[in-house]
Amino acid sequence: MPPKKSRKTNVKETPVISDPLKFQNPNVEKYFLKLQGKTFIQEKGFQPLMILCKEIWSIVRYHRWERFCLIPKENVVIPIVQEFYVALRDEETKRPHSVRWESVTVWGKDVSFTPKAICEFYDAPYYETDFLESTYLLNFDDMDMDSIIKYLTENRGEWKYRSDISLPTNFNQAIMFPIVKMWMQFICTSIIPTLNVSNVNTFRAILLYGVLQKK
Questions:
Q1: What is the Cα–Cα distance from 195 to 192, expressed in whole angstroms?
Q2: What are the structural domain ranges in the chain?
Q3: Where is the Putative plant transposon protein domain (predicted)?
């Protein structure tokens, strides 16, 4: 899935300065400092002139994800991104589990992260309900998981199963065909950030299938 010559997001290195006035909660400051030196998953996109461009961009245009799928050009200031996640974690520890919130404060500014706000930022369509919300992800009762893996691997793959309940768990992404690999790399850096892209779990497989099948 990733183009071989894709450019990485420009990362602007900024010295980390612990400001006691900035972090009123010592636990927040502690977690912020703990993040320093951790692996930073950078977003990746698609080059308009890349290999398999026609196949990739027909799907991009269908979903109206042109801005979302382009390789980011802006500099990334790592401490700002880290502070966003620190603030988010702090909110999670303070609010009841059933209470949802829509923004956090980063460097004195309120940052909205609702699905609608994210879609507006990327000029992408926002849907009240979508393919995943209508899918039963616990036992996959309404999904033909064998058909999904056959489609993603061109009939070359098999699911690994949980022995206790006989439900599929994952498969190796190496057997997927090129376009699917490219989309999986995008999903794992821009939608569901993860360092382990070698094994495709059921959720990623269903999401990938929905993207490619234009659900």
A1: 10
A2: 11-121, 145-212
A3: 63-213
What whole-number distance in Å separates Cα of residue 154 and Cα of residue 151?
5
Q: Which tens digit of pLDDT belongs to each residue from 79-135?
A: 888 888 888 888 877 777 777 778 888 887 888 989 899 999 999 999 877 777 766
Q: At residue 12, does pLDDT exceed 60?
A: no
Q: What is the 3-state secondary structure (H, E, C) of the chain?
A: CCCCCCCCCCEECCCCCCCCCCCCCHHHHHHHHHHCCCCCCCCCCECCCCCCHHHHHHHHHHHCCHHHHECCCCCEEHHHHHHHHHHHHHHHHHCCCCCCCCEEEECCEEEECCHHHHHHHCCCCCCCCCCCCCCCCCCCCCCCHHHHHHHHHCCCCCCEECCCCCCEEEEEHHHCCHHHHHHHHHHHHHHCCCCCCCEEEHHHHHHHHHHHCCC
pTM of the model: 0.75
Q: Are strands 76-77 and 11-12 parallel, antiparallel or unpaired?
A: parallel
CB 131: neighbour CB atoms within 10 A? 15
